[in-house]
Amino acid sequence: MAKAFFRLQKFLRRTQFLLFFLTAAYLMAGSLLLLQRTRLVIQQGSRGTSNQALPVPDGMAGVGIVDPRMLQNPRHGPRLLVGMNTMQEPVLDQWHSPRWLVTRNSELRQLRRRWFHRFISDQEPIQTAGFKAMKHTAEHKGAYMGCFSDDSRERTLKGAVFYDLRKMTVSHCQEACAERAYAYAGLAYGAECYCGNKLPATTSKPEDCNSECKGEKGSACGGVNRLSVYRVEELRAGARRRRNVIYRGCFRAPENLTDTFPASLIQPNLTVEMCSEFCSKKEFPLAVIREQECYCGYPTGRFPLHGGADGLLCSGMHNASSHTEGKYCLVYQTPVQDTRCTDRKFLTTKSKVFVALSSFPGAGNTWARHLIEHATGYYTGSYYFDGALYNKGFKGEKDHWRSRRTICVKTHESGKTEIEMFDSAILLIRNPYKSLMAEFNRKYAGHLGYATDRNWKSKDWPDFVNSYASWWASHVLDWLKYGKRLLIIHYEDLKQSLIPKLKEMVEFLNMTVSEDRLLCVENNRDGNFKRSGAKQKDFEPFTQEMKDLINRYILTVDKALRERNFTGLPREYVPR
């Protein structure tokens, strides 16, 4: 009897433990499932509001600038505007702030975490033990010259600079340097490409170049302060190199060309190709031709390339026509990059003034950052994270936007809280028609592409205009209301008068730069994110209804600017 009781007691203990274990497992599984479903609902909910018509609360009839936060609270009695799909008359008294970037910001922050952790893992140093097997010439054009020392303060290869932190290869770097007529291509940190026509003076141990190319396993792409240098193979066809020579115009020659330009050549039967080739090898961005004389140099205060002359004054110059009497010269842009303004770094001490570079998406914020960075020599930051921009050299993208190590911070945000955390701001405003089209292209084809005709003719385009047109207006209105200290820059004015407007921006940032550096920026004005020409469409993307809405927003913003003693919008797109 005692034995049977003992067995029963032992069984109950096992059963109790088993039940406890099963209960705990069940609760854990249920919790995980609940968390997963909650995350899925949040993601679906955040993506489901971007392309809907704008509901308007009962108390806001007739107002075109709507706060999308109302979209998330339909219980307050919103109703859809009938007849014009929210295209109603805007009024100045309403200061509502559309937050169309809420979803985009959360997605970008998720992307930032994933991309940054992947980037950090990629940065792990390569083990040098097995690095001797790293190939140098297998699939590369040109010979491997060796590993050389590199000083970031005084570059040994002073030509063009390229970055690709995801896909850099030796061939990619060599081709980029070859297209710009350089003789050598040097790679560092596995992702940075430098071009030049002279080999670095100081060699290093082969094992010091221990960084693997980001886009090509087994290939040497330099190291920390080390360059893996390759000779650039000559292009098969000289015509491609010739296409990279750009005619800048006919200009009045300076009084003393020898003092103005550091290199010169006198050659009978001089051609554009001869002069451009000579100046490219000397690593100068300008080739200047006067009769049989070739001069190489940079745009300077003596020769700023402003106020070009009539091209007829330079006609027949290759035949040494006497009617010009040496007063005019032809100017060509060589494939060589003007590197006097390409050096950039982070601020050595934290900035005391927190400055925003604010704009509506598609208003030229990336271009303005390019100009500011090259003019001041300091990186700009970003409220977001864009891997494509980071890969092209905007290193401030990775830096935390509150670090104050950058000269200013890009933002598309609006609203009282987001604006008041900045001490001052450069507010960049662009024609809303151009901005809307640029942002639509970016959404569907990236920074350099164009949306397809199918995209433009789909319902996505009118939904996009309905949503984003009001944001264009409210973005400006919010910054006018809550901004502490503003500098208003109109994109069209910056494009037309680059140097004067860039000086305003630099002075606003409390920086002083030389005239030669500003001329260098002007010489490199386009940067890496300029779309190649305007892709003409065989149809008008804006309906009359869209135009009526956008024009009312333009008038609203123009009036608000003038009431606050700022210059109104450019007359070229203000309705009359």
TrEMBL record:
<dbReference type="InterPro" id="IPR002889">
    <property type="entry name" value="WSC_carb-bd"/>
</dbReference>
<dbReference type="InterPro" id="IPR000863">
    <property type="entry name" value="Sulfotransferase_dom"/>
</dbReference>
<dbReference type="Pfam" id="PF01822">
    <property type="entry name" value="WSC"/>
</dbReference>
<dbReference type="InterPro" id="IPR027417">
    <property type="entry name" value="P-loop_NTPase"/>
</dbReference>
<feature type="domain" description="WSC">
    <location>
        <begin position="141"/>
        <end position="233"/>
    </location>
</feature>
<dbReference type="InterPro" id="IPR051589">
    <property type="entry name" value="Sialate-O-sulfotransferase"/>
</dbReference>
<keyword id="KW-0677">Repeat</keyword>
<protein>
    <submittedName>
        <fullName>WSCD1 protein</fullName>
    </submittedName>
</protein>
<dbReference type="Pfam" id="PF00685">
    <property type="entry name" value="Sulfotransfer_1"/>
</dbReference>
<comment type="similarity">
    <text>Belongs to the WSCD family.</text>
</comment>
<dbReference type="GO" id="GO:0008146">
    <property type="term" value="F:sulfotransferase activity"/>
</dbReference>
<feature type="domain" description="WSC">
    <location>
        <begin position="244"/>
        <end position="341"/>
    </location>
</feature>
